[in-house]
Amino acid sequence: MLPARVSFVFDRIAGVLNRSNREPPSHPVARPVARTVRPRLVLAICCMSLLMSSIDATIVNVALPSIRHDLHAPMADLQWTVDAYTLVVGSFLISAGALADRYGRRSIFQCGLVLFALGSGLCSLAGSARLLVLARVVQALGATMLNPVAMSIITNVFPDPKQRAQAIGVWAAVPGLSMAIGPFGGGLLIEAIGWRSIFWITLPICALAMLLTTLFVPAFPGRPGQKPDLPGQVLVTAALGVLVGGIIEGGRLGFGNPVIAACFALAAASVALLVLRERRTAAPLLDLRFFRSVPFASANLVALCAFSAFSGFLFLNTFFLQDVRHLSPPEAGLWLLPIALVTLLGSPLAGRLVGRRGPRPCLLVAGFAFTLSALLLQHLRPATPGWQLILAYAVFGVGFAAVNPPITNSAVAGMPRARAGTAAAIASSGRQIGNSIGVALAGAIAFSGHGGATLTQSWRPFWWLLGLSGLAIASLGLIATSRRALATQRRIAHLLDPAAP
To answer: What CATH number labels 2-21+35-229+283-496?
Structure first.
């Protein structure tokens, strides 16, 4: 009964949006309606949604001290303000991609804009930390319907592989722009108006994006008949929740604690049950056939490694700048600008390189840059020279700029267009899972130190992990671009869509 009711609700919502957008009835083949498509304008609209959610994530981290003071929130509630958002996004991205494939990408994209705006408004009105956490969950549900769906829209409006790779490069530069705007601009906004204002600024952006989406984004009819896989969704959420929760609490209780061991055992059992469930159901949440494509599976592993490294790197260095060097949030944001600027400028270049040479050169550059930045930070201390910090941050920015376009391009390349939403969502979910694991690992490592130089020395295991992540990314870049790997990509594309050549 429950899956039928959920399906009925989404059918009604999609029907209302489709009527308001004057879309034709759904058709098994995902093609846009007859209208003049402006790919660059559609790309700009999709990038607007990514910029909105990315800026929100960076500003919230800057606002945590103000939220703690105003709402008298304990540290655990502040952690959940960040973690609840990340976990919800990581858990429901795949479902959002499947919903987009079924009900139409534009309709689900518009639902995401409405939910994100609603969640932002509720965040600004929250009277307690727990209400803020609940509002962040609503906001996260909207975010799950934005980024992967926008990526699948880009895939469909740029059918040419080279143009699509360049568009993905522009898309991948948006997080760099959000990092340039968010920490410094957010710090100024919080200081001038207050922390609630950081949620107000997303409301007009959502309204503008909704208008432009209705006018210019083409409709891609979905594939009717596929039912939501609620048991699969429950298993995915349980696996991620107990895994990340176990890592976070393991830093406080110790990883030998029976409760922590039980969390990891439950996560492993949830994954095993998920695999059994998805292999037997007719409409799986996670189509395991995708992972028979070596480039697709490698792209997800690269996403996991790269974003674990990125989130942990950003967490520890923000903590270093503000608590060890005693800088204000705007000053800390200025020190992090090298990462943002290099990402902003380098991602479009990486997209062009992927379009011309494939993903291998970018993945090799990314792996080398991550490893080099880890070596530069091995002896991080309170008195580390400024030039060394800037160099380490810039080198890391090179790696982050180089790794994003090949992840997205490899995830959707070769996949049938009707399945692009699900493929992009799986890759985006890998990013979010990496973000959650990276912050959890960095936090567990950070709590093992005790102030000053001893604290920064205790971070060395994470820098070694960062270096190993770089080596893993470079190795996967070689494996995923071999002839045998590309042959598996073609076979899976034909398996998913027998009409494909």
So the answer is: 1.20.1250.20
